[in-house]
UniProtKB/TrEMBL annotation:
Domain of life: Bacteria
Any single GO BP term: proteolysis
Domain Peptidase M20 dimerisation span(s) in chain numbering: 189-348
Organism: Ketogulonicigenium vulgare (strain WSH-001)
Protein's name in the database: Putative peptidase, M20/M25/M40 family protein
A GO molecular function held by the record: metal ion binding
């Protein structure tokens, strides 16, 4: 690995210039701005590395796919990322323009530099270094880059199912998201899923005077408040029947990994300005994020919200909610449970199911976990953290459940990358470490 690392280290400034040129091109999926242009740039990059590359159309934005096949007896790694970015709004909150990459305080500041252009560009540069030094790759590599991740990946499940043979691999690695707040490298083995839904109450044809009609006309806001109170106790326990039935408990290996994770609850609370953690009070910190479902009221709306007062009984109200899923819950199972609960406790309330995403889990004892760990250790000089599951959601289920292979998330970005927010950024040293890490992981996987 020394020759490869020397090659990468000697080109540190060059890589920074090139990634800044890449991220200055907008690719905002929500507004269909620059998507095809950036997809074309990626096709050119992969072609230039010797990949067999395709731009594959979908009902939405296209996928970019490339493969570099060395030897069928070697492992095949699928690298997943996304080339679309979030809208940069609000523009006035940016210190420097979002699509004019700027170096400041040891970081590159630009929309997409952390999420996800800078991270998959680091993977590309790691591959370029391997090819330059050795003339080949240590394993078979496939690259899949999506153009709709930031709008919920609406095409990816059908795409993966329809292209199983093309995407066939032994494992998937995604470099996306932030590192642990200690700055230590990490391997994440799973993600929670999500099911979003809406509750709508209508109690009358119009809002009415709270004196003339108070005590006779049902209040739509109270209807929802009372319904929501039946779904979760003040102690924080979700009380929707059947919701927890499919859950697979954490394994001993997952418990051991969680026990080794750094934890500063006081610092976490101080950063958010919290006086206490959410209920239940007796649940361990990481259990809350990895091993338990959550029920969140995203918004509750109804009645008068303007200045001053208005003595009115709201005739309509709605609540938007989500439930985070753990293995082996499914959105359909969750929707069935919530729908049944509403029918019992508030049959006049309309239940509307919105989008959902399955959870994903890879065993910590996967044979590829050791190779990935060895690669990170070689590149970074420290042991990575092993995180059984992220609290958030990624479409990893398409790999673990449709392709049937282990999937790992190895992020390169700093924990305060401000993805989805103004002043998104990526630390220069972590971008460089990502290039080294990408090259090292492929090398160790190929030698396994």
């Amino acid at each position: 690995m020394d020759k490869i690392f020397d090659y990468i280290d000697a080109r540190e400034a060059e890589y920074v210039t090139r990634v800044m040129d890449y991220v200055r091109h907008p690719s905002i999926s929500a507004h269909n701005i620059g998507i095809r242009h950036v997809a074309g740039l990626l096709v050119d990059m992969l072609d230039g590395l010797g990949f067999q590359t395709q731009l594959i159309e979908t009902a939405g934005h296209p996928f970019v796919f490339g493969e570099y096949l060395v030897d069928p007896s070697l492992p095949t790694v699928l690298l997943y990322g996304h080339y679309d970015v979030q809208p940069p709004d609000p523009l006035e909150k940016w210190i420097s323009p979002p699509f004019e990459p700027t170096i400041r305080d040891g970081r590159i500041w630009a929309r997409g530099i952390g999420d996800n252009k800078g991270q998959h560009f680091a993977q590309l540069m790691g591959i370029e270094a391997l090819l330059a030094v050795t003339g080949t790759l240590p394993c078979n590599v496939k690259f899949l880059l999506e153009g709709e991740e930031e709008i919920g990946s609406p095409q990816i499940a059908d795409f993966v199912a329809a292209h199983r043979e093309m995407l066939a691999c032994d494992l998937v690695i995604t470099s996306d998201g932030p590192l642990h707040d200690t700055g230590l490298p990490q391997v994440t083995y799973g993600v929670r899923g999500m099911a979003s839904f809406e509750l709508r109450a209508k109690t009358a044809d119009r809002d009415s005077h709270s004196g003339n009609y108070g005590g006779t006309m049902p209040n739509a806001v109270w209807t929802l408040v009372n319904l929501l109170a039946t779904m979760k106790t003040p102690d924080g326990e979700i009380t929707i029947a059947g919701l927890h039935d499919p859950i697979i408990p954490a394994t001993n290996a997952e418990r051991a990994a969680v026990g080794a994770l750094p934890l500063d609850v006081d610092g976490f609370m101080a950063e958010l300005g919290l006086k206490h953690l959410d209920a239940p009070a007796n649940v361990p910190f990481y259990d809350r994020l990895m091993f338990r479902p959550t029920l969140t009221i995203n918004g509750l709306h109804g009645g008068y919200g303007g200045e001053g007062t208005k003595s009115v009984i709201p005739s309509e109200a709605f609540a938007k909610c989500d439930i985070r899923l753990v293995e082996a819950m499914t959105p359909d199972q969750v929707f069935d449970c919530v729908r049944a609960h509403v029918a019992i406790h508030a049959p006049d309330v309309e239940f509307i199911a919105h989008g959902g995403m399955l959870p994903s889990k890879t065993s910590l004892e996967s044979p590829y976990a050791r190779a990935i760990t060895d690669g990170i250790r070689a590149a970074r000089g420290v042991e990575p953290l092993h995180i059984p599951s992220a609290g958030g959601s990624l479409p990893d289920y398409v790999f673990t459940k449709i392709l049937g292979v282990p999937a790992f998330v190895v992020p390169y970005a700093n924990h305060d990358e401000a993805n989805h927010a103004p002043n998104e950024n990526l630390k220069l040293d972590l971008f460089h470490a990502g290039i080294r890490t990408g090259a090292a992981m492929l090398t160790k996987i190929g030698g396994q």
